[in-house]
Fold:
Amino acid sequence: MLILAIESSCDETACAVVRMSSDERTILSNVVASQVETHALYGGVVPEIASRAHIEAISPCVERAISDAGVSLSDIDAVGVTYSPGLIGCLLVGVNYAKSLAFSLGVPLVPVDHIRSHTAAAYFTSAELEAPFLSLVVSGGHTSLYSVPTPAEYEEIGSTRDDAAGEAFDKVGRVMGLTYPGGAAMDALAREGFEARNTGKRQKSERIRFPSPAINDDTFDYSFSGLKTAAVNHIHNLRQKMNIPDKGMIPHDEMAEIACAFTEAVVEGICKKLELAIDETSCERLVLAGGVAANSHLREGIQALCDKKGVKLYMPPLSLCGDNGAMVGAQAYYEYMDGVRGTTDLNAYASGEGAEAAKAVFRI
Ligand code: KG4
Ligand code: ZN
Structure:
């Protein structure tokens, strides 16, 4: 079936057309209108500006997705849309647009959870990816581990108790003076830091060690706030010691070592809990998804863990790690097959718990 899917939960307006069936997973078009440059001026996403930008971008985005796919609106069999979690004003733009489109076309509307969609991006990596599997979603707003017995059933078995990993990457990047969002720049800096360690340019005694985000108990939970604060304090102390004014740039090799030590703590901490979960659940397949799944060090670390454990790892390509419409289309297909339908009173919900409490999803 041909699904048109809309995503507007944060700072990307996205629309895709995907063709999905029991033996096909094809992206026909995938258009993303990013607002990153606008929000970079403010050092983070400004919700009101984001909602207004979605209003402006959504129609052109949908038109472009239809024309790139080489189809017409009358070919569309269902409309999928992110309805939770996210910034409420942003979600409302996508939900209202999708609702109007679906009902004017006379096709089903399928509400989709944003975190499930991140996982669903992995379906495009391989035709053989089938539930059951574990999914680790690491993004700007979430760091959660799910057991996925069927494509439309998600049970959270672990999560962060405070900040998300992406939030911590962005905060440390911002304090160092990197442009928002700092995740990708931190990735590149960390590579330089690891290189300096490996070539002996940075002595063992000069290496930083930050606290682990893995909570020291037998849950699969994380805490990134201690790690974030330790890195931020380290940067402030370094500025004081080196007589660098607030917000002044610190030497490049120090930035590389900070990014490296921060990334090392993130990757080791995430892998520690993941290993526990793999052992306890005896899972055979793992999906790594979300914006931070684009991190090259995290990809390498989790690949090494999966190789050691004999677990097959599925990671979306970098182009499908950040927010996009294709991932919404893939999850919409499985929700549709499970009988999920949106009605004319479908609302948007800032949190997944809110959506659940409101029993927002209707099943036929
Ligand atoms: O999934 P996403 O696009 O949006 C949310 O649903 O939150 O994730 C965005 C997050 C940002 O925090 C961004 O800095 C981070 O993903 N990110 C990265 C990398 N690329 C994007 N973090 C670390 N390393 C990267 N290469
Ligand atoms: Zn996202």
